[in-house]
Here is the input.
Amino acid sequence: MHTIDLGIIAGYILLVIVFGILLSRRASQNMDSYFLGGKSVPWYLLGLSNASSMFDISGTMWLVYMLFVYGLKGAWMPWMWPTFNQIFFMVYLSIWVRRSNVLTGGEWITTRFGKGKGSELSRLSVTVFALVSIIGLLTYTFQGIGKFATIFFPWQLSANTYAVIFMGITTVYVLLGGMYSVVLTDLIQFILLTITSIVIGVIALSQVTPDALKAAVPQGWLDISFGWHLNLDWSNTIAAVNQQIESDGYTLFFFFFGMIVFKGILNSMAGPVPTYDMQRMLAAKTPKEAALMNGIVSVALVPRWVMVPAVAVLAVVFFSPQLNSMGGNIDFELVLPWVINTFIPVGVTGLLLAGLLAAFMSTFDSTVNCGAAYIVNDLYKKYINPNAGQKTYIWVSYAASVFLVLVGILFGYLPNSINSITEWIVFGLAGGYTAPNILRWHWWRFNGYGYFWGMMSGVVFGISFGLLFPDISSVNSFPFILLVSAITSVAASLMTKADDEKTLASFYRQVRPWGFWQPIYEKVKKEHPEFIKNTHAGRDMTNVMVGVVWQTSLRLIPVFLIVFRLTSMWIALALVLVTTVILKKNWYDKLEED
Here is the structure.
């Protein structure tokens, strides 16, 4: 790598550390300032920060792999996470979350289940789930940054050594600046990656022709539609790709697609997992701003969908011989680094690598800051030292952050691939979270015991599923984990007494969810005749469906452009315009000012 590029990267790293130092006094005023930015950060900055946290190296390498192997059908793969949960959050769920006015997802439990034993167990279970999820995310980022750094940097260090170095640097400014550092560096990262994504897109359009692309890919690669089977045969170009598709388990593509839609809807209705997504909602000034924050995330992620198909197209046209020479040991996670080394000019490479390092830092810092909040607020403050001063809690936050980083590094040495960690987080762990967290919003009779046993059974079964049933893929494990968790949740609730009605009435009146709340609604209405029931379930779900079309079309516009599907691009653009008008009238104009 050229000295100019190294200088740009070093300058960026120095800049973020300086920002952390400058923001340290403001961040250390109290826990609200350190973990939520004092609930004073504008919604659009929170949204850009949230989008930046999703624009990570590991995820980008994974998406490039998906588009390289599966072509335009790979554009559906992000629904595994599911990406359209941002639409559920935008339309109504982030409003419900922000109305709770708490610091963490663990503290939220108290507003829903009260202060009895069931509530205590529930709070402990969601804290455990959050920490397990966060450690999984840290392991995921560890794998990505290590593999990425070995390709570019001139020093002969191992992937794990690079990962430890960059995690250490990031930890410094996270410790010092808290949420303020996270948001500010995320904004810098967003600007860098937007510029470099456009540059890579222009390079792809100038270097690749429609005929060259068509000649390099199998039949069906350029089709976003699909039937029962995937029907992609790479035998004439890179035969090992067929083995990879087989091992992924996506050959019955219609079944796989139905599974990720089914899972995605349920996961989304469960609300945000207790990580950085939820933290951004709680950090918003008002419930309305929490909704707007989630709305801008889908727009802010569009530049990523310039970079991903551009890298995939350059690789499939020019890098296929190198991949083919790897035989059965093909490594698609090398595609992104190879494209950058080959096509990006001096200076721009430095900006891009600084942006991708910032992408790693953005995901990493958000995850660490959120995890420390759970350790301090839901463990240390709750059970160990409830009457400590704010300075003590800040120092414990520092220690908690370091602890999480060390555990993430430890686990980072174990897995073999980014894809394996991705599937474990998406299908295994999420399966245990879904059922109890849908019930907590929508059913008044669901209590703290139901939540605790539902979460614990789901998480334990989710983690152990691969050991118990090694022949069942992680994709197909979701319904089994969901069923175990759902049955346990309902049974435990019905076998124990309902939560205190005063707690339920307070929660219902404050959060105002729709669902099966009639007995509680009648109680609230009797005591507060002015209370108006939330009857917007139909409108919300209509807006969700429109929003999913809007978000998907936004993402597909640059994808279709890069692969020379111009007619499809114009159709996607038309869909964006139509759905934007509908959302303006049926969602934005009807947002309430709490």
Q: What stands out?
A: The mean pLDDT is 83.
